[in-house]
């Protein structure tokens, strides 16, 4: 039976498993490991953990429900992207999205912490939509996905006090659009 199970999407599956390990470590340490390694917040730049958190925050999740909501979408959208672009390219897109959202969080929100993979998931949603575009044409699905997700996040960000996660979603979606266009340009 185990011979028939395929580790079909190494980057996406490893990301999901490492995120699960981070969640379990956080539960085991009463949140200390999550705060130390898997949340980005304003901290001294001479602290080595500050630099790790610029990327590591996407592996952390506040609860099992938070983890499941991100991983469900990641596990649905990620494997086709990994198959299309390759694991190395997808990992680079994920790391760039994490770094950009981590740095923005660090600079703009000194009194708040950010954790979770939703920025990476939003990047994948938009990247997936851009991937479906044929040369010289903009698919209606891309416009609708962008309007629904990014428009919804803009609306929520303007009408509710928590601007941190909405900005991360917008950054992720914007990264997905940029990466998609760059990857399409590289293929033509």
Describe this protein's structure.
With 188 residues, this protein is an all-alpha fold. The chain has helices at 10-28, 32-37, 48-56, 64-85, 87-108, 118-131, 140-159, 164-187. The longest helix is centred in the last third of the chain and has 24 residues, at 164-187. It is globular, with a radius of gyration of 17 Å. The protein starts with 9 loop residues before the first helix and ends with a helix. The mean pLDDT is 88.
User: What is the CA-based Rg, rounded?
Assistant: 17 Å
Distance between the termini: 42 Å
Largest sheet, if any?
none
Q: Return the string of H and E elements.
A: HHHHHHHH
Q: What coarse outline follows from CA principal-axis ratios? A: globular
Total count of strands: 0
Overall mean pLDDT score?
88
Low-pLDDT stretches are none
Strand content: under 5%
Q: Please give the count of helices.
A: 8
Which structural class do the helices and strands define? Answer: mainly alpha
Q: What is the percent of helical residues? A: over 70%
What characteristics describe this protein?
globular; mainly alpha; 0% strand; 188 residues
């Amino acid at each position: 039976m185990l011979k028939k199970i395929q580790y079909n999407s190494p980057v996406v599956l490893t990301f999901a498993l490492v995120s699960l390990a981070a969640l379990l470590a956080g539960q085991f340490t009463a949140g200390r490991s999550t705060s130390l390694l898997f949340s980005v917040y304003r901290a001294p730049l001479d602290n080595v953990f500050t630099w790790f958190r610029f990327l590591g925050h996407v592996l952390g999740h506040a609860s099992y429900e938070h983890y499941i909501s991100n991983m469900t979408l990641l596990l649905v959208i990620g494997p086709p992207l990994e198959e299309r672009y390759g694991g190395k390219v997808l990992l680079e897109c994920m790391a760039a999205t994490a770094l950009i959202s981590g740095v923005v969080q660090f600079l703009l929100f000194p009194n708040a912490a950010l954790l979770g993979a939703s920025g990476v998931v939003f990047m994948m949603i938009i990247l997936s939509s851009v991937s479906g575009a044929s040369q010289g044409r903009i698919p209606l699905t891309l416009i609708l996905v962008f309007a629904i997700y990014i428009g919804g996040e803009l609306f929520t960000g303007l009408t509710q006090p928590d601007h941190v996660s909405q900005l991360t979603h917008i950054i992720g979606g914007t990264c997905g659009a940029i990466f998609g266009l760059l990857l399409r340009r590289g293929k033509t």
